[in-house]
Amino acid sequence: MTITSLTLIPIFTTREMGKTCPSDADKAVSEHVEVFLETDAGVTGLGEMSDINFDPTLDVLATLKQRLEAVLVGKSPFDLTTIQVALSKETWEHQVTCGIDIALHDAVAKALDIPMYQLFGGKYRERIPFAYPLAPCQSDADVDSNLGRIERLQDQGHPTIRYYFGQNLEADERFLTQLRERWGDKVEINALDASGRFDPDTAIDVINRFGQFKPNLVESPVKGRHDAPIEDFVKVREAIDLPISEHVADNRVAMRLAEGHAVDIFNTGPGYVGLTACKKVFGLAEIFGIQALLGSTVETSIGTAARAHLVAATPNVHYPCYPSGPLVYDEQICYERVKYEAGHIVVPDGPGLGVEIDPDRLKAQTLYS
User: Fold this and answer.
1) How many whole angstroms separate alpha carbon 61 and alpha carbon 54?
2) Is the Cα dihedral 323, 271, 135, 267 positive or negative?
3) Model pLDDT, residue 206
4) Which of 51, 101, 116, 148 could form a disulfide with 297 if both were Cys (CB 3.0 to 4.6 A apart)?
């Protein structure tokens, strides 16, 4: 089986949350690039560059296609390592190598007529606990909007959230106080994500202030995030009672944080450099005795399915994970979205990703149709 061509289709999806804040009536829009990897065996590998941070103009995608085809065309998807090494020798925009890696794995799994999780060692779990993302409150209207979201999630049977905080600590406190008053422990706060807002001393004060709301962990507490001085992480970690999580892009970042005893949890994901590299970070976490969870950039069902297959075959996942795009986005491009039941992502069955793009929906969401 040989790769013959590559098609890149840019799409948009509308998030249910506001563009500038939780109560904004104008909805946030994300852009993605859907990947179609054609082969001479009639197998098409699907992938996705999810929630991209580059402008997917026709010219940009034409150049990207040309660069990628120079590496891919004429190779077999089964030559995963050879292709990945070749890709690693060049610099790519965020999510590019992830989208290609997903498509390669999907093609291989389809050719073997197996679900993708079999490529990672087989299904360890059927369902994956997840946490729904909530944007930070800046006003009373935002507090009301986020409380409304939690009420909807409770009605759907989804108890766990991840809350970004730190823009307005008073509004954060009002929101979290009302959350606990209305639902008590029925709402699980998996993470309070500070998004690298604080110096170490401020981080200590803020985390101790918000510990009363019983989050499972605090994420990205210090300025600089994973590039922050190790001493900053250690100072905060030694002064608080909650575990610290940080985003881990690759083995280099993982080794630095692990060797410095900087964090308790790796938040990692394939969006940085792909599924294979992400699997290695999970393995490194296990070696160092560090806990782990799977992060997200908010993917459609294509990207979400790939992440679900990876986590399905990964034993050392200790906290609810973050892929929730099929719930966040108003539109979908697949015949059926990835399913969520009782606070869990249901792992799709194959072959491949186990989800299929609907051509009509894809056309409706295409940026330049």
Assistant:
1) 10
2) positive
3) 97
4) 51
Q: Are residues 62 and 190 in the same domain?
A: no
CA-based nearest residue to 51, from 133, 166, 127: 133
Identify whether residues 163 and 267 lie together within a single domain: yes
Q: Burial letters for 251-273: b for 16+ Cβ neighbours within 10 Å, e otherwise? A: eebbeebbeeebbbbbbbbbbbb
| Tokens representing residue 168 in the block | 């307005």
Q: Judge if 112 and 131 occupy the same domain.
A: no
| Residue 138 lies in domain | 122-346
Distances (CA, A) of 172 to 135, 158, 179, 194: 10, 21, 11, 11
The predicted pLDDT at position 183 comes to: 98
Provide the pLDDT for residue 271. 86
How deeply is 289 buried, as exposed, middle or buried, from its count of CB atoms within 10 A (0-12, 13-18, 19+)? exposed
**Which residue in the block uniquely carries the two structure tokens 């539109």?**
331
In whole angstroms, give the CA distance from residue 282 to residue 315: 9
- Residue 328, helix vs strand vs coil: helix
pLDDT above 80 for 369: no
**Alpha carbons 339 and 19: distance in angstroms, whole number:** 25
Specify the pLDDT at position 245.
98
Residues 214, 192: contact at Cβ < 8 Å? no
Tell whether the model's pLDDT for residue 272 goes beyond 90: no
When pLDDT is cut at 50, 70 and 90, the band that residue 249 belongs to is: confident
